[in-house]
Each structure stands twice: as structure tokens, then as C-alpha cells.
Amino acid sequence: MHERVLFGAAYYHEYQPNDRLELDLDLMAEARFSVIRVGESVWSTWEPENGRFDLDWLQPVLDGAHSRGIAVLLGTPTYAVPPWLARLYPEITGERKTGQRIGWGARQEVDFTHPGFRFHAERVIRKIVERYADHPAVIGYQVDNEPGNELLHNHGVFQRFVDSLRHKYGDVQTLNDEWGLVYWSHRLSDWADLWTPDGNVQPQYDVAWRQFQADQTTEFIGWQADIVREYARPDQFVTTCIAYDRPAVADDELVRRLDLTAGNPYYSMQDGLQHPHAGSASQGWTTNGTWALYLSADRMYSSKQSPFLVTETNAQAIGAPWQNRPAYDGQWRQAAWALVSRGAKMIEYWHWHTLHFGTETYWGGVLPHSGQPGRMYREVTQLGAEFEAAGSLVADLTPDSDVTMLYSTPSKWLMQKYPALAHADGSPDERSYHGFFDAFYRGAFDAGLQVRILHTSQFTGSVQDAPVLVVPALYLADTELLDQLVAYAEAGGHLVVGPRTGYADHEARARTDVQPAKLAAAAGVWYDEFSNVSVDVPVRGTGLELGTGAAGSRWIDGLTVDGADVLVGYDDPHFGRWPAITSRAHGSGRITYVGTVPNPALSAALFRWIKPAAWTDLPAGVTVTSATSADGRRIRFVHNWSWDSVDLKLPGPAHDVLANQPTNGKLDLGPWDVRVLVEPDQ
Amino acid sequence: MHERVLFGAAYYHEYQPNDRLELDLDLMAEARFSVIRVGESVWSTWEPENGRFDLDWLQPVLDGAHSRGIAVLLGTPTYAVPPWLARLYPEITGERKTGQRIGWGARQEVDFTHPGFRFHAERVIRKIVERYADHPAVIGYQVDNEPGNELLHNHGVFQRFVDSLRHKYGDVQTLNDEWGLVYWSHRLSDWADLWTPDGNVQPQYDVAWRQFQADQTTEFIGWQADIVREYARPDQFVTTCIAYDRPAVADDELVRRLDLTAGNPYYSMQDGLQHPHAGSASQGWTTNGTWALYLSADRMYSSKQSPFLVTETNAQAIGAPWQNRPAYDGQWRQAAWALVSRGAKMIEYWHWHTLHFGTETYWGGVLPHSGQPGRMYREVTQLGAEFEAAGSLVADLTPDSDVTMLYSTPSKWLMQKYPALAHADGSPDERSYHGFFDAFYRGAFDAGLQVRILHTSQFTGSVQDAPVLVVPALYLADTELLDQLVAYAEAGGHLVVGPRTGYADHEARARTDVQPAKLAAAAGVWYDEFSNVSVDVPVRGTGLELGTGAAGSRWIDGLTVDGADVLVGYDDPHFGRWPAITSRAHGSGRITYVGTVPNPALSAALFRWIKPAAWTDLPAGVTVTSATSADGRRIRFVHNWSWDSVDLKLPGPAHDVLANQPTNGKLDLGPWDVRVLVEPDQ
Amino acid sequence: MHERVLFGAAYYHEYQPNDRLELDLDLMAEARFSVIRVGESVWSTWEPENGRFDLDWLQPVLDGAHSRGIAVLLGTPTYAVPPWLARLYPEITGERKTGQRIGWGARQEVDFTHPGFRFHAERVIRKIVERYADHPAVIGYQVDNEPGNELLHNHGVFQRFVDSLRHKYGDVQTLNDEWGLVYWSHRLSDWADLWTPDGNVQPQYDVAWRQFQADQTTEFIGWQADIVREYARPDQFVTTCIAYDRPAVADDELVRRLDLTAGNPYYSMQDGLQHPHAGSASQGWTTNGTWALYLSADRMYSSKQSPFLVTETNAQAIGAPWQNRPAYDGQWRQAAWALVSRGAKMIEYWHWHTLHFGTETYWGGVLPHSGQPGRMYREVTQLGAEFEAAGSLVADLTPDSDVTMLYSTPSKWLMQKYPALAHADGSPDERSYHGFFDAFYRGAFDAGLQVRILHTSQFTGSVQDAPVLVVPALYLADTELLDQLVAYAEAGGHLVVGPRTGYADHEARARTDVQPAKLAAAAGVWYDEFSNVSVDVPVRGTGLELGTGAAGSRWIDGLTVDGADVLVGYDDPHFGRWPAITSRAHGSGRITYVGTVPNPALSAALFRWIKPAAWTDLPAGVTVTSATSADGRRIRFVHNWSWDSVDLKLPGPAHDVLANQPTNGKLDLGPWDVRVLVEPDQ
Predict the structure, then answer these.
(1) Which residue of A42, A103, A362 is in closest CB contact with C182?
(2) Do B202 and C81 touch (CB under 8 A)?
(3) DSSP 8-state assignment for residue C669
(4) Do C357 and B180 touch (CB under 8 A)?
(5) Do C431 and C340 belong to one domain?
(6) Which of A86, A107, A571, B637 has the highest CB neighbour number within 10 Å of its CB?
(7) Contact C421 A45 (CB under 8 A)
(8) Cα angle vertex B628, ends B623, B630, to 5°?
(9) Chain A residues closer than 8 Å to B95 by CB
(10) Which of A49, A81, A326 lies nearest to residue C531, judging by beta carbons?
(11) C340 touches chain A (CB under 8 A)
(12) Chain pair B-C, CB pairs under 8 angstroms
């Protein structure tokens, strides 16, 4: 689609205190910008009063961009409702609990399923898109923005939830049986008996409720996309920008209604990008650690199993007034190339300016508050030149992968309310799903391997596509999927199973099988008990090489070996009776079972055993990742995530893409530096 | 009543996905189970719709149990209201604050004082009990379940609270005077002026409010017990199962309406049972530390000053999905014997199965989710055999005691809202009453002494019954009780007084006396100031032998000696002017005053001075407790709460009850091991 | 006005369980008390029912006081509404959020702007003041008590807020422009569109909302003062007692409606008074650290730039039942003399008794609960004798100052919602304004300098009044004020600018200038980026002498030097490119820019460079402060804030005021000791 990686920023000229449109666009052009995103936040500007529209103000922006060869991504403004609409129909206000309305004054306060909202949203969408669809600058549309921000408890939403259960289960007796409502006297006599979600403590209810909430988001975005498509040109795409941490988003389902995946990866800069990662900062809507930046990229690729747009990512600072941490020199380039290496076709900063008013005054843009180009602009300009130098070679990459990991959004949701893991202080860890998942992902990353993430909905069982398949914490799984996993191993795949996988069925009912349910026989291990642990339990390797400090953590399955080989055992008077990691050949393949959350040292050791990295003996802070270009060439990205300059001997011939010169077998990288290499065709 | 300790589990066949009744009962019989508890959680099964009853489903369970010699404890199902009832009368929903209803979806959401609830509860109770009272398996009834879970703020509850004040105080002027309502302009002109408890900050109000709440629970449980007794056979008992940490329970008052005490002690397993206790985990509805397990047993004995039933206790795991910590081998046996040694006549696990659905999916039962006997079943089976071997000798024990401690539920309540102690970070410690009480209990336990706990309502002043009486934190006390304490010492008792005792009267009004009020003269010390302390203040002994590390902590009374001997002083430039512990002979007895929260080392030293343990020089992890059997013999329980095997020389002849062999003066215990010894008649 | 420092306590005889009026007053007289405060808390005693008044009960207190030469400060009782009034008009209940009423049961629950409240408040005020205005004991009035405790969200309050915006901005279009309401679709079409403050996240709204709330407090107190003045004698003053941490108080504006400033400084005792301050305890309504006690005194002086009354300060304990920390011997005297040295004309403890009931039972008074004089009474009696000995010499002091600091209440407010600083765990620090301000204040204090605090409203630009002016965190500032700062330096002042100063305009809009806005050129440095830092960044001095451990902390401006000299730089691979502190001569003066929150070592070093202390080489725990007496003499206060006795050589001749003897050039101070010296006229 594009000759080079799309490069740019969200651009809100309407937020500026002075007219500086020409200056801004000239600066962008100088930085080799090729795209801007506009218009998605200002419904009250598009429609200052009920039914009175003001559509022309954007024209100069689109014209100015077009005249400089900058493309435009046009947004629909539905995520921020105008005050007049909030005043006219207070019933459209979202409710966080039954009857408890979200206060107005921010954005995304609305029950977007309410017809009173839909009527007005549709009207303004049609006006805007009709007005600008033909503008030559417009290459695509973003409908709404970071949807799925709330679990809506409004009356209508709940009633439709009950309807959806009625349609699915038919009668209350079936629901009583499927959900085990005999428990604690919850059996319904009629659909009207169903309690609202506020007080609910039953996991089975929660499974349905979270899926229903995500369905609302998918339906809403799909509805918008369909409206926009009535006006869009065939060469224009429709997408939305996904914040992957939002509670009501099933990204794989959502993107089916869209042409492209677009996501907003935010990451901690400065020491937050050190590798190996030493900090204990937790993950959230911003990631912490280099490995976590790659994980967010791989999740974006996974939504549609294809290259994606980065609609927003860190400019100078990310978030609240007390969280300013602009990058060290080099880090913006590093992060951008990291994203591109994992399939990003666009890098768009949030945002060009820095706001002078409003909540996000300290969400620093490419330009500081002064509006004068500063350090980040200089860094961005260098990056723009690099993208131009690399051109189409890196514009549509397929990221390489050594191992595949299976991702289960429903398991993630359920563990938010019913976490299997505790924090160090004993309190529940609402990110327990990622507590398991990330430990494996990071181990692979630290071992120099690359990961493809597959949603369970995307899993075909193909061994060729995924010679190694890692499946931790697949807590909710129907029997068909579990059988498919065994068949995958039988067909030659290396299935690596982590704790909690297969434990419950699709209704979150603990299975009556010996665990891991449906997998135990083929894996050659089973368990019927398990334990949380507060301190790491040291391990000793019998079947693989461990570095110092390897340990199990947080969770231990009490594995009984029944045919498998023991790779790793615990050094503990109680847990020592059970192995930590086992492996067993099954059919043409193999099943490795990991009965704990491996700490970083253990996880990296496991993955080194699973598959050696392409390049070994790298200096501590250096990573090498790779991708395949549209024309089939192998591209390598060499990063130095540290303050120490490093020398690197290359294992083979390669061309330095950005310097456009041969490497002569050696690379020297400065602090926080990155190189892009292309290997000769083989 | 019984030939051996009742042994069993709560059994909910109605929760099982498959019919496995015969299998379950056979497994129970094999494990020597003698009792199950049934039926208390499923009102919506007993009465699927308003007025339509389904009473027969339990028959096979009772029949099957009976045929295997397993007795049944039948529950009334009132703690979990059916959805149809919740729908019909929303006004019965409990309110946590005025007008703020508890969400439906769990259990115990109801205002159990509301006549709309009472009507339906009475009807279903009568139906069930009438149906099964004659069944030969039924030995007793549990009415409701863990009552007193909420402080109900419903309109009717509050209005009856005002009525109760009117009845007690007669007119508002009296209330104004008694409660000091001149303060901050709170004087009432009429009963209608009384503010609701939500905003209340006056301690005097809180005293009445908490007692009124507990009265509601007592009345409700008594009301149910009386209904059940209309149907019960004379050989059947009525009880309820008490969770001692519930906010609206006065256990000594509650059990007066019942035939027997029944309680639910839950405790942390694994390292939570290490002795001496090193962890810093706090107490809650689960205890932490071996000493705390004994404390919970002694509190159960105290409710009625008689042996008690353990209706629920840990099976595999206790609580939330992130809190799985099944015991080390041996610990379940250790804990069961510990409870029996302190007067338990029944050990009933919660529960037999592990649930496949619902909130408590990870509240692990005797059987794992697979339903196949595992490690715990094997441990339980060994324990069943041990109970059989010990037989009637241990079935109705009176636990021995070296010291008696006075317990004040109203003082505990008041300190929840007005804590005298802070956490390490300076925030209030809502468990301040136990912050004082536990420090003394644990010191006695660590010194090898056994404790009888007396409620203030049970205190008679008898020196013979209680040669040593320890009274910490008796903050709320009327003058009569304080005078009784002095008389007790005068009559020959050793009264050990801790901080805060006697400080306030029964209305929580600080007394105008020099402190400790009414006790100062006889104790030979007084104070008029006190201080919280954030770091431990080291002490030096002048009158008793201290180990290393002895210190005062959290609170220091500024004691002025006026006739007492100083036993311990502070090593501090400010606090050093005051003694930490003093003692003075008074009449035929003695009053020892402890002006601080003794840390474990100081507290153990104090109790070693008060009374030497029966057996001394025990290995670090070993405890010895004792009880008197129904036939008057002394039984000793020797526990090794550690991973280290130990050898023990016995001070005298004894017979090993479980091995049924003489001990030959020596015992060797493995890790987490226990022995039961009976001494020859003397 | 007075011959010596007024000395006394709040006195609530109406709260006592027994009549002990004569005893109390005798004890006070013996302790040389000269003032009591009465009557402000008991509206329900003044008016037991609607319209029925009981006004005579106070007469004996006033008579008894007067007969002993004790003056009386008479309070109006409006801060605690009687229950009958709360019952009659529930609509006067304050709302913390829209529609969310504060529970009754404490005090200050009322919407004091509501006419239903005003009607009753006015009636009772007139009754009381009319009754007692002529009493010879009464020297002044306190209206209400610690006002501004809540941000009131009542309907009427909000509607008047909208009215105030309408009056200020004229039309919604102007408001849309000024507040940047284009952002996130917030443009209003009509005044009715304005959202309530609950959900607001826009800084511009917050600026107006907080000022409006403070205006309500000022208007209310002024209204009361005006009523009282209708009755007051010319020799009587009117004030209120200010808790400076209350959310709705602009103290400089409030005191314009009053004759005198009166404030309530509470401070942590025991190790909370150690100097230098080592603890990490944070500041709140109680201060922690000696420097912070002086800061609270200097803030009281600043309200009206004149001597002030201390209406309440620590007696035995301050606050909740878990916070008892009565002072070490000497500390009460130290603190009282510290306050006097900074301009206090009255020291009044809260309070004489200790309450036997109510929330504040553990807010220990001068007397303990026993009512018998104890350690504090003895300390107080010594202090009373000292005040008598010092007499008029110290009764009306003007505190000396070496440096002046500019204080911005609006900046403080804004940073409560939009903090620039984070706590160590990354969470926002709601006291961020003081996070900046206090770092500078403490540095000056540690360097032996004294500080005058000026509100921005009081700044005249005079170099003579303020040769050194320190301005940190002046985030909200209009252009005129920034220009005035530059003019001040030009005229010869030494302007010391800290981070965040000038960043935003009066509407909290980030300025479009290069920063520090309007100051950059004259300061010779500018920045356009900045960073929060989690760990201290070490510095190295190039232009001033640093001790060990000097570091920048929490915040770093990325300063580019453009004419200034670099005094201090960072030792860091990233931040090292920028200086930490620069200085540049400007006009006849100088501008020093500090681009970080200096840690204590760096801040003290900075102030040692700015100005040498009067006395140097003091022992570690010793401070010397000074003031000018009414007759123009220099008084010095020498404190030893430690357990170590110290010897001190004096730099010049001085007379020991309290011992009434010459010093002979030497002083020896015991632990927690204080001396008052007067220097001979020069």
C-alpha cells in the first residue's frame, strides 16, 4: 500500500491558541512526515448546538497537508459527547454500577449502546464523512477512539444482557444447570430473577458478562465502520485505535469489523527501556521494560495476524503531570524501529503539539509547549530521514517468530475478578493472566527468541505455522480446543503448557478431570493439587542447563510424573517431591509441562533449551530481532538498550540499511543505538 | 454424648455435576467419618418458587449416611435468600449505609430483622425440619450460618435502635447527659433528632450501636432455634456455626440461645504453622501462627466454657483463588489434634468436595476437583484411624489452663472504630484490641503455658478457678467489674493488668480517676499519661529474667510507682523514667501491671516469671499441651511444628495413645508430627 | 495591646462531668494564664430547641475568669449545627459530591451558604454576642471555627458558581475560548451546559472552582464578623481560627475581613521535633520537623504580615486515639518560644481539660483525664512564669527575616488535583506545591536563615523589604506578576526562581513562551523540557560549595544556558548535559535559577551561598532565630532540639531574659532547652 513506513502524528490545529498551520506543516514536511490524524475529539466543534453543524474548519488542514504530500487519517468524534447532548438526555450517561452515573467532564462517559446517543452519533458521522470523503488527502478513517473503556451497567444494557442469556440458554432451568446456580441458593425461577452485575460473585456470570460487554464494543465499532463505508472511497481504509488494556475489548473480534488493526502502544522511557529489565514496575496501559514493548507490538500483530498501524505512541511524555520522563537520546528511534520490526506500517506520535489546556496538558507532544522544535523534534527528524532511507524495504514487514504463544482474552478477563496470583503483600493480582503469560514471553525474549501471538480463535493446529506453541494460563478452554492441542503435539508440534491451562471449561467450571485436563495423558504428568508461593522456590536442573538464580515463583502445580522426563525439580522439603518442568515425546511431537511461573532466569533457561537464538554471545544490553520484507528479504534490527557502547561481530554478511553501506562483519553501537541490516538473498 | 471425636465434613451432594453419592459415602466410611453437615445453603432448591417446596431430594443423602453409621447435622437455609424472594421484596435487602443496599449475587445480603424476610424464613424452616426431624441420622441442627456478617443500617433497624435507646434512657435529656451530647452541639431535643450511624463519630453512640447489632443476631438465631425445637427430638441439639470475626456477634450471648457452641476456625497452613512464629502476617478470619490457632480454639471453648464443635475448618485451601496453600504432610493431623486438645468434640472439614462453580471454587475440599482421593484424603484417613484408636478417651476433653485471660467483646468493638494502636505506617490498627490481647496470649503460649479465656460476663472472681488472671485492654468496664478484679487479688489471685484496662466506663467515657482506674491503689502504680511508640523500646529487667530482644512496643503507660516493685524498666532517655512492669502483693494475692504491649520476647519472659511450664527444655518447634479426659485422666499432646525431627525425653511415664504402646520415657517426632500421651492415674 | 504574651487554653467547662470551675481557674491563675477561649462548640446548649435560647450558663465562667485577671475570647457556635436544625432542614446538609450528603454526627456538615442555615446562625450569633459583649472579660471574638473544611457541591453553590462565571466571562463563547473548551468536545452552547465539578478533569475549571469555594468561606466569615461588630466594643477584636490545611481557605483574603490573624499550628512532638530533621513523615494538618513548625508560624505571620494569635496548639496529644505522643520535657516550652519568636502574641492550648466523651477523647489537654495537674501542667507553669518574666519585651515581636519567599495559594490548589511531583511509589503527591516550596524553606532554615513569607497578593516589588526573594512553584501567575519579578531583580533584588514558576498563566494554561516564561532572558537560561526523577541525581558544584550528599530530586528542568553562570551541575549521563543551578546578574540585582527540587544538603548549600547565617558553627541540634521587639531591640532565641547538652560561645554580649542575668559570652543548654537573649542597644 505504501512506499515507506507511514510517519507522523496526531494533529489538532483546532487546539492551538494561534494560527500556526503553515508553520506546523512545514516543520512536519521537514521531518519527513507522511501522515497526520485529525478531527476525532471535537464533536462540539463539528456540531456546536443540537443540529447546527460547522464542517468547514478542517478544510485548510487537509489542503495544507495534501499540498505537502502528507496523508490524513480522519476520525469520527463520537468518543467525546458535547455538553448540550449530555444536558438534553442525561439517560445516555454511562453507569459504572447500576444507577451510578459517571460524572461528566472528561470523555467516554456515555452509554454508547443507547439509541439517544446513536441517533446523534450517526447524524454527525454522516455529516463529517460525507463532507470530506472525497478529499484526496484522506487515506482512511478512524471511527471513535480507544473504545471499550467502561463496563456499562445501564438499565438497557443489563436488560439486553438478560435477553442474550435467554436467547443462548433458552430457559432458566438450563441456565441454573449450566451456571451451577444451585450454589448459594442462586437458582432462578424466572429471567426477572437475575441479579445485576454489581453484586455478582459467581465466575460463570462473569464470563458471560465480560463477553457481552466486549460484544457491545465490537457491535458499536462495526456499526460506525459500516456507516463510514457508505461514503468511503475504495482506496480508503477504516479502523479504530485500540488501547489493549481497556476492559471491554476483544481485539481479535473487534478488528474483524475493520480493514486494519491500529493500536496505541505506550511505554516507559528512560530506564524503563533498559535491557535486561531490572525494574519491578508493573505493566499497565504503559509497558515497562524492553521485552514488554515487544509484547505490545506482538499483540497488535496478533489481532489480525497482519501488519498494523501505530496510531498513537509516546512523544515527550506519557500521562499525568507527575509522569514526565522524556526519552534519552536514541530511545525514540529505538522504539520506533522495534515497532516497525514487529510489523508496524505506521508510526504516529501522540501528538504534534503539546496542549496548553485540558487534562492532557502534560502529555508532551513532538513539540514542547513553546511550539518551537526541540530535542525530540531533532530526534524525530533523524528518524524521518531513516524511514526515507529504508523506504519500501521495511514498509510492510512480516515479523519472524521462533515460538508461538496462545492468547486467551476470556481467561484474562476472568482472572481480573478471580486472580490465581497474589502480589507480594498477599493481595490479589488483577493482572494474573499476564502474570503467567508475561513470564513466558519475557523468557523467550531474554533468550533471544521472537514470539508470534495467536488468539485461541486463530489457532488452527498447524505445526508448520507454529513449530513451538506455548500455552500458559489457558484457564477457560472448551474440550475441543484442548483436544486440538494434543493433536498438534501428536502431529509434530512442541507444545509447552504452563499452569492453569485447561483447568476450567468454557463456563469457567473447574473440570472434573485429573489436571491438566485432557492433556495429562499425553503430557505424562498430572496433578490434583497446587499451591501459591510467596517467596521464590529454587530449582535444580536435571534435563536442562540453568543459570544462577533460577526459581519457580508465585504458583506451583503438584505434578505427578506418569511417563514424562523431569527437566527441572524444586529444592524444597515440601515442593521437592514434585517436578517443576517435565517433557514427554507424544506422537511426532512433544509436550513440555511447566508447573510454575518461571522466574526470569528459569524462563530464559527453558527457552534456550527449547530453541537456540539465531545470534548468540550478544553483549548484555543488545537484542537482535528480524522480519521478512515484502520482497522476501531478511531484515535484522540490532538494538543496544544501554548506556555502554558495544562492538559486535556479525555471524554473516549484511548491509547497513540506514547508512547504506556494507557492515564488514562488525557493528559498533553507541548508547541507546539501533542498526537495521538486510541480509543478502540466499 | 459420643464415643469418639465426631469426624467428618460438610457435604453438598446437590452441588455435584454427577451422582456420586454412594462413592462419596463409601470413601467417607473408609476414612472413618462419623458426621456430615448438609442442606444449609440451598433455599432456592428447597423452595424453587414462592411457596412451592421440594423437600425430598435430601432423603437419599440421609439414608445413605445412616446406613454407614454416619450422623447428620442438618442446616436451615436462611443465610442465602432465593432470587425470587429478593425480587419480590427488595426492601428486605440489607443496607451497609443508610439507603445503600448491598448488591445481590453473593449471600447474607438480607436485613434478617425485616418481617418480610422472617415470614418466608419461618415457613421454609418449618417445612424442612418437620420433614426430617425424625430421620435417625439427624443428631442436631445448625440454624443459619456464620451470622452477624453485616452491620445493618436499614430504616427499620435504625428506628428500633432509637426505640431501644428510648426504652433504656427514658428521655433525651438523660441520653444527652450520659452520652455527653453537649459536645460539638449534639444535644437532642427529641428522639427524632438522633443522627443515623453513618456519620456518627461519637464513641458513646458506637457502644450502643454495636451492642444493638449483636443483639439482633442473638435474637434472630434464638428465634430460629426456638422454631426448630418445636420439631426436634430430645436427643438432638441445636447450634449455629460461628465465625468469630464477624462484626455483629457477641459469642457468649449468642450461645446462650443454643445447646452447644460450634465454630469455624480457619488457619494458615504451610509456614503459617511454624513455631515459634516468625511471620508478620496479620490475623483475620484466618489465623496466622500456631499460637493463633490455639487462641481460636480457646475462644471457642470460652463461648460457653465447655467443649465445642468445629463445624468448619481448613481442608485443602482456605479462601480466594490466589490463596491456595494446602498443608505440609502432617499439618492437618497436627491442627486437628490441637483443636481436640482444647475441647473440640467434632472436627468437620469444609468441605468434602471441591466446588466446580461459584465463588468458592478454590476453597479446596478433602477431595480435589477431580473427585479422586488425593494427598489430603490420605492424611484424613490416617487421622480418622487415630480418632478411632483414641476413642472416648479424647472425645470430651476439658482443656487444662495455667492462666486465665479476660475477654471483652465491647472493648474489641470500640477499638475497631477508635483504635489505640497504629500500624507501622502510622495508620490506625482496627484490630487494636487483639493487638493488646494477642501479645499476652502469645507470650503465655511461647512460655509453654495454657490459657483459659473468660468473657467478662462469665467472671465470678473465683481464685480457685483462675489462680492467674490476665486482663489486657479491658477498656470498657463498669466500676463493679473493676472492684471485682481488686477483690480477686485480695482473695489470693494473681491479677496481671495490661494497658488500657479500666480506662473508660461502660459508656466509653474516660474515667476521671487516676489510672488504672479503681486498680491503681491496689496495684501500687498510677499514670496520667501514655504514649504510642513507633519503634520498640528496649527494656532491662530488674525483677525478672529477660532474654535478648525484650522490648516494649506500640504503647507505653507513664507509670508512677506508688508501692509496687519494679520488674522491668525502659532503656530510653524519655520513657526510662517510668517502669514497664511492676508488681505488688495485695491482700492474699498480687497485682502485676504491664504498661506496654510486650513484644514476644518480653511477653514470654513475663509468663515464665508468672508460672513455669509443666515441661521445660523443649526443642524449639515443640509444644506440649494437656487436657483432662471425661474419666479424669491427664492427656498430653506433643507437637513438632517444624521440618526438623526431634528427640524428646519425657519427664514421667506415659502411654502413647495412638500407637497404643508405652513411651519408655522417650519420644521421637518427625517433621510436623504429633503424639497423644495419656499419663498413668496418680 | 497587651503587656505580655497572652497565655492560656480553650476552656469548656460545659464539657466537664463535675463542677470544677473554681478549681480550674485557680490552677490557671497559678500557671499565669491570661486568656481562655470559650463557647464556640455548643449551639445546642445556647439554643436547645428551635428559637428557645439558654444564654446564661456562660456567665460564671466569664465572671470567674475576670476575677482572676483572665481575659476571654468568645466564640460563635456556628461550626456545629444542632440536631434539631439538621432535622428540620435536611437541605442545608453539605454535599461532598453532587447529591451526596455528608453524614451528620460530627461537625461542619453544613452548606454554610444556604439561607436556611444563615437565618438560624444569624439569630443565635446575635443572641450570644448581645448578651456578653459588655462583659469586661471579653477582649475579642472568634467567629466560627477552622472554616473551609469542605468543598461544597450543593445545588445552590453550583448554581451560584455558574452565575459567577457568567458575570466574569459574560458569554459562553468567551468561556469556551478562555478555558480551551474545544478540547475533548467541551464547548458550551449555553450556561446550562456546564458540568458539575464531580466529573471535571479540566484544570481551567478547577482554578475557578477552588477560588469560588474559598470566596464562599471568606464571605461567610466576613458576614459573621460584620454581625458581631454591630455589638462589639471598640477595644474588642474579631477573628476566626484558621486551620491552614483546609481546602477552602485563602488565608490572606480571609483575614482582610478580620482584625487579627489567628491560627492553629499543630506539630509532631517527641522525635518529630528533632533537628536536623531525619524522619520521613509527611506534612499534613500536623507538621513534622522543627523547620516545619517554623514554616507554619511564618505562614501565620504572612496572612496579614503582622503578629498573630495562636488559638490552638498541642497540649498533650494531637489527634486520634492511636496518635498519643506527649512531648519530651522541654519541648512545649521550646515550641511556644519558637512561635513567639515568629510573631505569636498569644499561645493558647487546645485545650485545658481532656474530654471524657466524644471524638476527641484522646486529644489530650493541659490536664489529663483525671483533671489533676500532671507533667504538662508543670511544664506549662514554668512557661507561664517565663512569659511573665519576659513581659512586654516579647509581646509584640516582628520576626526577622533573611530571605523572603513568595506563596501562591492558587498554585497550591491546582497542584492538589494536578500534582507535578510523585511519591516514591510513583503515585501523585497531592502536596506537590509544598513539595517544591518546603524544599527551599527547609534549606534556608537548615542554613540558619529566617524566612518571611509573602502572598503574591502582598508582593510590591520592593527590594528594601526583601533583598532576597525565593519563588518556587509559582505555577499560576499572570504576566504582570512575572514582569514585576524581573523588575525586582533589575532594581537590585536577588531573585531565586525554582521549578514550575511562570509555567502557566492565571487560567492554568501552559504558556507558549520558552520557559521560565517572561524570566528566561533576564535569568540567562531557558528550557523546553523537564523530567520527573524517581531517585536523587547527584550534583557537583562549580560555583558554590556543596557538602556531601547534595543532589537534585523529584524534578529536573532541562536548562539551556544563555548568559548565566553555572553554579551546580548533575553527575548523570542524561541529565548531566543540563545545569542544576545557574545565576546571572541582571540590572542592579541577580537572578538565580534552580532547576530541580534541591535535596536538604543541596538546598542548605544554596542558601549558605545566598547569605551567611548570623551565627555560625552551631552544634548540630541548635538553632538561633531572632526578632525585633516593639521598642526596637533585637531578641534572640536559642534552641537545642536534641538529647545532647551543648555549650555555646556567643558572638557578642547578650542578656538572658528568662534568667534575668548577663550571659558572659557563653550559653549551656540542656536537652530540649531554650534561651531568650536580648542584645544591648547599639
Answers:
(1) A42
(2) no
(3) E
(4) yes
(5) no
(6) B637
(7) no
(8) 145
(9) none
(10) A326
(11) no
(12) 167
In which element (H, E) is residue C310 found?
strand C308-310
Give the helix/strand (H/E) hosting A551: strand A551-557
| C-alpha to C-alpha distance for B339 and B349, rounded to whole angstroms | 13
Closest CA to B286 of B316, B263, B319, B248: B319
Residues 8-27 of C with CB under 8 A from B: 14-15, 17-18
Do the Cβ atoms of B357 and A183 come within 8 Å?
yes
Tell me: the pLDDT tens digits for B85-142?
Answer: 999 999 999 999 999 999 999 999 999 999 999 999 999 999 999 999 999 999 999 9
CA dist., res. A49 & res. A82, Å (int): 8
Residues 6+ apart with CB under 8 A from A262: A142, A239, A240, A241, A242, A308, A309, A310, A311, A346
Query: Three-class SS of residue A13?
Result: helix
Look at chain C and count its residues.
682
3-state secondary structure at position B285: coil
What interface predicted TM-score (ipTM) does this complex get?
Answer: 0.96
Q: How far apart are the first and last CA of chain B?
A: 26
Q: What is the dihedral of CA C407, C409, C410, C411, to 10 degrees?
A: 50
Range of the domain at C55: 6-152+220-397
Collapsing DSSP to helix, strand or coil, B233 comes out as coil
Counting DSSP H helices and E strands in chain A, the numbers are: 17, 33
List chains adjacent to chain B, taking adjacency as at least 3 C-beta pairs closer than 8 Å.
A, C
Cell of C363: 486529644
Q: Residue B224 maps to which CATH number?
A: 3.20.20.80
In a domain, residue A171? The reply is: no
Nearest-by-Cβ selection for C321 from B187, B198, B420: B420
Q: What Å distances lie between residue A17 and A10, A21, A54, C175, CA to CA?
A: 17, 11, 19, 14
First to last CA, chain C: 26
Q: Indicate if C320 and C267 belong to the same structural domain.
A: yes
CB contact under 8 A, C426 and A44: no
Q: Does C491 touch chain B (CB under 8 A)?
A: no
Same domain, C425 and C369: no
Interface of A with B in 180-239 (CB under 8 A): 180-190, 192-205
Would you call C195 and A82 a contact, using CB atoms and an 8 Å cutoff?
Answer: no
Residues with Cβ within 8 Å of residue C292, at least 6 apart in sequence: C267, C277, C283, C438, C442
**CB-CB under 8 Å, A281 with C182:** no
Q: Are residues B379 and B420 in the same domain?
A: no
Task: Report the domain count for chain A.
Answer: 3
Query: B531 CB near a chain C CB, below 8 Å?
Result: yes
Question: E strands of C231-274, at which residues?
Answer: 237-239, 261-263, 266-267
CB atoms within 10 A of CB C134: 10
From B284's Cα to the closest Cα of chain C, the distance in A is 20
- Tell me whether residues B192 and C44 touch, CB distance under 8 A: no
Predicted local confidence at residue C682, as pLDDT: 58
Q: What percent of chain C has pLDDT over 90?
A: 96
The DSSP H or E segment spanning A142 is strand A138-142
> C-alpha angle with apex B542: B541 to B547, nearest 5 degrees?
25
Chain A stretch 41-100, residues whose beta carbon is closer than 8 A to a beta carbon of chain B: 97-98
Question: Over the stretch B372-390, which tens digit does the pLDDT of each residue have?
Answer: 999 999 999 999 999 999 9
What is the average pLDDT across C154-172? 98
Q: Which of A192, A429, A530 sits opposite B87 (nearest CB)?
A: A192
**Do residue B355 and residue B467 come from a single domain?**
no
Q: Specify whether the CB–CB gap between A206 and A200 falls below 8 A.
A: yes
Using one digit for the tens of pLDDT, what is the confidence trace for B347-366? 999 999 999 999 999 999 99
Give A83's contacts in chain C (Cβ within 8 Å): 186-189, 193-195
